[in-house]
Fold each of these.
Amino acid sequence: MISFDGSSSAPGAALEARGKEEEQARGKEEEQGETAFDPAEGLRKRGFAVVSHMLIELRLDDLQAEFRETVGNFPEYSRAQLPFVLGGFSALGNPASFHNPFVRKIRQWCMAIVVQDLFRGLVHSDPSLRDHKIEQVIDRMLYRERGKTPVAETWHRDITPVTVAGDLVFGGWINLNSEPQYFSCVPGTHLEPRPAGAGTGFSQIPKEQHAAYKKRARLVAIPPGGILVFYEHLVHEVVARKYPVDMMRLFLGWRLTTDNRSIVTALSQLPEARKIPGQPDHVLRPLDELLEAQAVIPLKSGQGSPMVSKLHTTQFIESHWVPFSQNFLPAVKVWHEIKSKSAQKYGQRFLVVPRFMKSLREYGFQLFDAYSQNEQLMYKPSLGVRVLMPGREHLFQDVHL
């Protein structure tokens, strides 16, 4: 088991200062209007909302210990050594990180909370959504070591390539730290017309528009145990900023849709011309197949969840990729050959963890408990599902739009 130091401190001074400045910059009228919003109304008007549940907040210490115990016992790793993934963003890409009991429990809790506090009100307030169903989209764990800086991502919108007419797709996460986490966005931009020709996955905002968006930007605080939900096409950014504590979160995705297919299954049916190039075939497969094999789940953009960046596979093979791969059992490793004839080490091979991992079953590891019918239903469009009650381990409740 990997050993962790659980010490923590207050958020960075620069981050706090930015938050205070932006709070002061908003006029009283806007502040009063925001406090008057219920969560569903805030989501509809601003494009984001933050909700929470008392039982999760009260259990944060236990959840943090369970988070660390979970990542410290991943079966793919051979020794107790950090990091778990290369790159500053630090979202995990090993199959056990998607299917372990901890994340499956948290996803059920979050399903109950967001349906009751957000999506039910959103659907009932909009006649055009009355025939829509709810789907949770599986996403990644994030464990970012203190002091590590993510690569900045400039202003952009997230775009899912397999939506049908009338779909609403949301991103977000649950903050599992005892300190606030932050989301930088431009409120209300989800109401803007989508630009013609916008790409899929990651649609960057033209540079000439950055200054105007920056003036309207807001730094949203997600409190300990809080759940952020935002329209995926809300303009937002990833800020390259260090945190003085280990960051723990579970990313979450949602869709309101009239489709009967899950996003993951729809991605597996994309024609080759619309798939992201350079990814192995095992990345996009039907949801049922991925759950049964307990495989890495693709992002709703159609991208895989990489263990190393593309740059590591070309310029930092011996300095970073090979040493990092020593943390893994032989069963998951592959031979990587230098195929560029212009490279100094053309033809040489290195034994490394693959950039895109497969499934626990394909690697021969013991699987976690099979997904129940209700769990599987939660990840497909439906009007309601039976899930764990927030903060509880064995009590269930029915949630529906």
Amino acid sequence: MEHIFDLSGKVALVTGGGTGIGFGIANEFVKLGANVVITGRSREILQTAKNSLGRNCFFYVNDVTQKEKHVALIEDIETNIGPLEILVNNAGRHSRKPTIETTDREFEAVMDTNLTSVFALTREVLKYMIPRKKGSIISISSMSALYGLPQVAAYSSSKTALLGLTRSLATDYSHTGVRFNAIAPGFIETKMVREVMNRDPEREKRILARTPSQRFGAPSDIGTFTILVGDMLERFSNGELRATGHRVVNTNWQRLSLVLFFALNGNYEVAPLTQFIGLDNPARYIIKSSTGY
């Protein structure tokens, strides 16, 4: 199938791009001609990813929590690869533990990776995007920001806060031409998710029982959706975009793009999708699930 998107020559930075959802996003970007920079803490993982992604992929060994290195990282990308047009804040840290057993240090570590580091990196990227009056910043949230899930207080707090940060950034800087959106994936078949499910097979059965497709999403599903946000809706999407794609019924990215493309401007909330129920104002389409959580 021929894509209607074209990212030729655009430079995209995907944090945590060596594995999982980040790799899926980077892979879809490369397919469409983008020069993709991936970051992560393991040189070996990043090199393996680059070998797979090809010559349009570049990598930097970088820990997003080392915020003092963000300035040098962005300067190097801008100088040696090209002007950043897309930032995908994907790097994340998970924690599944009863709240009363979670220490302050554990909570803060999750918040530092999933929220504070996103704020700090986004701030540095904006210093380049704003003068150019264009750019797309996409943060990967989670469906735990939309529902109450057990034993993930730290993780859920950080991913919920990302939605608030996205709205605030859109309010502050949309007039400059830079766009801000968040994507909240459902259960995606990554190494981390597989390890969790292998420890709790009954939980996996319960999740799949309420998932119409009877499978978890693939990292490439989120990659394709990120392209939709980062490219096709360049003039339209801003503020927030929620996607829990593993619960979509008979909806692919083409159909979804048509729904969103009719929006006049602004903020999109794409919740767990099965049926389109209308719009509550001319700028917002809301699609909600009939399956429940």
Amino acid sequence: MATKNKIGQGILNIIFILLCIAAVSPFLLLLSSSLTDEETLLRAGYNFIPAKFSLQSYEYLMGSAGKITGGYGITVFVTLVGTVAGMFMTIMFAYPLSRKELPKRTFFSFFVFFTMLFTSPLDGNASTHLPVFSRPLSSRRFFPSLPIPCSSSSFPYAGN
């Protein structure tokens, strides 16, 4: 009995070690490729040990720090405003539905339920944000409209 348990533990340990290696190795390869010279990457491909050490990618990142912080600013804005707007829309729709005396209450409940059947919480990343940026006008004009898709879903959350 004890030998059988040790063999099972050994097999499980090997499986979990392999899973850990499979989970960590892409990050190690990414780190190694970021420390490798660009021409060496093009010529020799990706390796876990850099053939020619270079910090050029990190110099590029530090040079474009304004773009990166601007992108994070947009992400924080869409998340915060989309969450608040989505919760507001949900509360404003859910409270009247909770009242028994609301006329056409079953119709509105069915409307929300029906839309939940055919959309998923993960749906909408490209389909709701692409029309915002596919117009020929500047994307700065549409910046305030980015949280709108988050608030118009039957799944109220930011990141829709």
Amino acid sequence: MEEPGVFSWLGVTVYLTEDAILSTLRDVASLAAGTEIIFQYEELESQLDAESQRIVAVTKTFVAARGEPWLSFFDPASLRARVQEVGFAEVGDFRPEDANTRYFAGRRDGLRAFPSSHLMKAQVGSVSSSEERTQSRHLTHRST
């Protein structure tokens, strides 16, 4: 019997092509029901406010100058749909705004989540227990 697993794929997708990302997601989606992946992705710059676009542009220039150009950016709603299309039953998106509210509210030093970085959690197959459903709600999809 195949057992589900958990994949943490943080800080990776921005350096990969869209095809490589979707290929990897298809591979993970082919694993046992209940398998989960949590990955970080960057939102399209055109969907960000002017200040966030400036921050992303500076960061992209900095990392590209060091030989690590950012290659992939996504529209959150479109990515969610594509992740479901490759075989994930449960998909949640944790936006920078969610992180700021949950983890950075009230900070006096101005530290905030990076403005284009999202975390997406996806689970293969159906969620069978109420405990698993509760855990999957920690990263909930919110339309942008």
